[in-house]
UniProtKB/TrEMBL annotation:
Protein name per its UniProtKB record: Reverse transcriptase zinc-binding domain-containing protein
InterPro entries listed in its UniProt record: RVT-Znf
Taxonomy of the source species: Eukaryota, Viridiplantae, Streptophyta, Embryophyta, Tracheophyta
Annotated Reverse transcriptase zinc-binding domain residues: 270-354
Top-rank lineage group of the source organism: Eukaryota
Alphabetical list of PANTHER family matching this protein: OS12G0587133 PROTEIN, REVERSE TRANSCRIPTASE ZINC-BINDING DOMAIN-CONTAINING PROTEIN-RELATED-RELATED
Species of the source: Fagus sylvatica (Beechnut)
């Protein structure tokens, strides 16, 4: 027991005798137990210092200069975003701490680019809304904390629930505790209870015995409570606070108990992901995310295509928008001004590659004016049939053009157009072979 500690809460008589008997040490609050701070104020910024230090240490151990943007994004979503998750499932994260962690993530991903702030705002949106799917910590923290509402109903025998029920009591039906009042009580539970109204708007009740579902106040037969659907009848009712079982004809004795049903997914069970997206409430927009993240291209190429779709690659016209003074000249065709749409669609070199693709597949198609429109219309052979190789073509072709453009601009190296065609075909073959797409088309 010499490695153990005895922590007195308040004044404990005979503590020295107990320590001598058990051969342990005397500790004090606050302390760490299983990595969690006990006895510290949940609002204290100091309890988050280990998380921030862990993120900084992890970043210092990665050779960022040798990682592509796709590799940085993979590490950010798989590792950095997950480090504070354990803490956020138990404690509300202060805004300053969330901003600090998001700033570290932002600098890791976008360090050195001029569009850091704009890209950071877009990156927190889901991928189907044109973002990168990086979690915004404040709504994610709320989604994790309010999962305790679902557990409150499902874990009726657990000690923590029994303590809350004994302290605050429960509302009719037993779905949640009464609202904590007064200056004393469990501060974390008070904070969690602040989100009950939003949480309750996303679930309904499956009526079994009907002895826990309120007839007028709960959602059980439509998306709205009956008191909102029929306000006049509710005002006339003499049984406004009765349960379904006492208002309607009772069911057979073999009926199951009343249950909660989560309405934001198909299986009816709560998950933090669906609630997070409901809290985030992204602006719905059309974006060809399936042609960017849904194809079998390397991660760094998918990231490149995402920037292309947003018209944010460093072409001549975008550099001039940033204040650089340079000639608007396309080094591929040596004729027109260089823009994203010109470089990848209207340039003579690009048109040669697109013509090769159309001839090889026996397709007659008029190229649109914008890259975004091309990505919208290209998927699965213009929507006619599924083809992994076909979906790879825009990413492979634009990446080939971009690499050749950079070689000509910065290395003063230029290859003939027939060699460029060979490069494109070789890259497309290699990507298709790695993902096993060639076997599917033999």
């Amino acid at each position: 027991m010499n490695k153990s500690e005895m922590v007195p809460i308040g004044e404990v008589t005979g503590i020295d005798d107990l320590v001598a008997l058990l051969s342990c040490h005397v500790g004090s609050l606050p302390l760490l137990y299983l990595g969690m701070p006990l006895g510290a104020s949940y609002k204290a910024l100091g309890i988050w210092n280990p998380i921030i230090e862990k993120v900084e240490r992890r970043l210092a151990g990665w050779q960022k200069l040798y990682l592509s943007k796709g590799g940085c994004l993979t590490l950010l979503k798989s590792t950095l975003s997950s480090l504070p998750t354990y803490f956020m499932s138990l404690f509300p994260i202060p805004v300053s701490v969330a901003n600090r962690i998001e700033c570290l993530q932002q600098n890791f991903l976008w360090g050195g680019l001029g569009d850091v702030h704009w890209f950071h705002l877009v990156g927190c949106s889901p991928i189907w809304c044109g973002g990168l799917g990086v979690r915004h910590l404040i709504p994610f923290n709320r989604a994790l904390l309010e999962k305790w509402f679902w557990r409150f109903r499902m874990k009726e025998s657990h000690l923590w629930r029994r303590v809350l029920v004994a302290k605050y009591g429960v509302v009719r039906g037993g779905w949640i505790t009464n609202k904590p009042r007064g200056s004393h009580g469990c501060s974390i539970w008070k904070h969690v209870m602040m989100g009950w109204e939003v949480f309750a708007s996303h679930f309904s009740h499956d009526v079994g015995m009907g002895d826990r579902v309120l007839f007028w106040h709960n959602r059980w037969c439509s998306n709205r409570p009956l008191k909102e659907t029929f306000p006049v009848l509710f005002g006339c009712s003499l049984n406004q606070d009765d349960f379904v079982a006492s208002v309607l004809v009772s069911r057979s004795p073999g009926s199951s108990s009343d249950k909660l049903r989560w309405r934001l997914n198909g299986n009816g069970t709560f998950d933090s992901r669906s609630f997070y997206h409901a809290l985030l409430a992204p602006v719905a927009m059309a974006f060809p995310w399936k042609m960017i993240w849904g194809v079998k291209s390397p991660r760094r190429i998918a990231f490149f295509m995402w920037i292309v779709a947003w018209d944010r690659i460093l072409s001549c016209d975008n550099l001039r928008k940033k204040g650089f003074v340079l000639a608007g000249w396309c080094c591929m065709c040596k004729a027109d001004d260089e823009s994203v749409d010109h470089l990848f669609i209207h340039c003579g070199a690009a048109r040669l590659l697109w013509s090769l693709v159309f001839r090889s597949f026996g397709v007659v198609w008029v190229l649109p004016n914008r890259v975004l429109d091309l990505l919208f219309g290209w998927q699965n052979w213009f929507g006619k049939r599924s083809s992994g190789v076909w979906n790879l073509i825009p990413s492979c072709l634009m990446w080939t053009i971009w690499r050749e453009r950079n070689n000509r601009s910065f290395e003063n190296k230029e290859i003939a157009l027939d060699k460029l065609l060979e490069t494109f075909c070789g890259v497309l073959f290699d990507w298709s072979r790695v993902w096993g797409l060639l076997l599917l088309h033999l």
